[in-house]
Design goal:
globular; two-stranded antiparallel sheet; alpha+beta; two-stranded antiparallel ribbon; binds zinc ion
Length: about 130
């Protein structure tokens, strides 16, 4: 294992599901924080970039994973193939673990983590 403190790794956003978003839980592309964030589906946690809904849509439209003009609703979901999906192209909801520096796999997020993520606003109230 490498020495984290020597590598200059950014702080991991450990979640406390009883409260809001941790300080380190921020979009890597814009100032958004305290909102729902998405992450790449399969990437080592050390390399994961968190993206807010609008940056996630932009990222996936560029990669042709979703249609241009896709809009994330207030429920944190998009219309995709006739369904409401909380996946944005190849990006999935980023739910940090409470006591480990990694994210839950998309299909293994505990209910408390799912509810924590759903409680976060989709967009910042300030424009
Ligand atoms: Zn963003």
């Amino acid at each position: 294992m490498s020495n984290d403190s020597a590598s200059g790794r950014v702080a991991f956003p450990y979640a406390d599901y009883a409260s809001g978003a941790p300080d380190a839980y921020r979009c890597s592309q814009c100032p958004a924080h305290g909102v729902k964030l998405w992450r790449q589906y399969q990437t080592c946690a050390d390399y994961i970039k968190l993206l807010c809904c609008d940056c996630a849509v932009h990222d996936q439209v560029v990669r042709s994973s979703i249609e241009p003009g896709t809009v994330v609703g207030d429920d944190g979901k998009i219309d995709f193939c006739g369904m409401r999906s909380d996946q944005i192209g190849w990006l999935v909801p980023a739910v940090p673990c409470e006591d480990d520096d990694t994210y839950w796999g998309y299909t293994s997020v505990p209910q408390a983590g799912v509810e924590w993520w759903k409680r976060l606003p989709t967009r910042s109230a300030k424009q």
